[in-house]
Amino acid sequence: MKKTNILIISGFLGSGKTTFIKKYIKEAESLEKTVIIENEFGEVGIDGEILKKEGINVKEINSGCICCSVSGSFKDSIKNIKKSFDPDTIIIEPSGVAKLSEIEDICRKYPEEFKILQKITIVDPFLYKMYTLNFGEFYIDQVKNSNIILFSRYSKFIEDENSLKEIIDDIMSKNKKTHIVENEWTSFNSFNLIYKENLNNSEEINQVDIAEHSCCGHSHDGHSHDEHLHKHSCCGHSHDEHLHNDDFESIAIHSKKIFTENEIRKTLNNFNNNDFGSIVRCKGTVKSESGYYRINFVPKEINIESDFKAENTIIIVIGRNLNKNKISKLFC
């Protein structure tokens, strides 16, 4: 039986996993036999919808983390995908607090059917120290069990005259075998990085085909087969869910309010203090005067983009000790 490659793209909440997968989709030689398993918090998926617009098969597993509360769904998913599609590659994007070690253990239960190609962890250098200190159990597990480390916001971090040496030294103290890529994502081809045959030293990874950064140049339209493993409905009010023994919570908000860019930026900036709980991630879409804004928040970083393709508003907030009433009022 031909084995299906499994590519795991791990990383804490808001690290840039979906952004990297979008880069990979553009640079891959072929995606006709590729399926993505997208796992998110709560009843509503956001990143899965983003990836579907790239024209690729996406299977969503929401309402929990694939390494714990919905691990049965994950096991069934990879088996069903293998049976139904027989793909060459399955890309797994776990939730931000999933343990990479546990996802790997599940995948290795079927050695005759699957082969783990790479275990990539995306690290935001601006937040590495804070997350290591505050969310060590999940965060360090992702670092310790990866074989490739990529930095998001690399150029901005270097431009701010920060040094990666201390972070790299700490990563290497936890995982001496991992390959750390000290380059901006735009400087290398992700497909070549992932399928590089010889990964015996980090220099080869760091220098992988930097001169060959290019897109595959063809459309992937027509390859999408949407299927939600968990259905949800927009009821106009918030849903919340407790995860990982109540360590993390999520709330989903459906807002009808129209925001200016300054107003939504000010709203998101409130999450940098603890008045609303310890918020580590907010993402989604809100209405603007001319369409929609796609919003992304991690501590001390806010990104707002116009999104004219959005069809409705949904905001997901993730953190600890969330003041759900105060958070909901911000968007009403």
Automatic annotation (TrEMBL):
<feature type="domain" description="CobW/HypB/UreG nucleotide-binding">
    <location>
        <begin position="6"/>
        <end position="180"/>
    </location>
</feature>
<dbReference type="GO" id="GO:0016787">
    <property type="term" value="F:hydrolase activity"/>
</dbReference>
<keyword id="KW-0143">Chaperone</keyword>
<dbReference type="InterPro" id="IPR036627">
    <property type="entry name" value="CobW-likC_sf"/>
</dbReference>
<dbReference type="InterPro" id="IPR003495">
    <property type="entry name" value="CobW/HypB/UreG_nucleotide-bd"/>
</dbReference>
<dbReference type="InterPro" id="IPR011629">
    <property type="entry name" value="CobW-like_C"/>
</dbReference>
<comment type="similarity">
    <text>Belongs to the SIMIBI class G3E GTPase family. ZNG1 subfamily.</text>
</comment>
<protein>
    <submittedName>
        <fullName>GTPase, G3E family</fullName>
    </submittedName>
</protein>
<dbReference type="InterPro" id="IPR027417">
    <property type="entry name" value="P-loop_NTPase"/>
</dbReference>
<keyword id="KW-0547">Nucleotide-binding</keyword>
<dbReference type="GO" id="GO:0000166">
    <property type="term" value="F:nucleotide binding"/>
</dbReference>
<dbReference type="InterPro" id="IPR051316">
    <property type="entry name" value="Zinc-reg_GTPase_activator"/>
</dbReference>
<dbReference type="Pfam" id="PF02492">
    <property type="entry name" value="cobW"/>
</dbReference>
<keyword id="KW-0378">Hydrolase</keyword>
<dbReference type="Pfam" id="PF07683">
    <property type="entry name" value="CobW_C"/>
</dbReference>
<dbReference type="GO" id="GO:0005737">
    <property type="term" value="C:cytoplasm"/>
</dbReference>
<feature type="domain" description="CobW C-terminal">
    <location>
        <begin position="248"/>
        <end position="331"/>
    </location>
</feature>
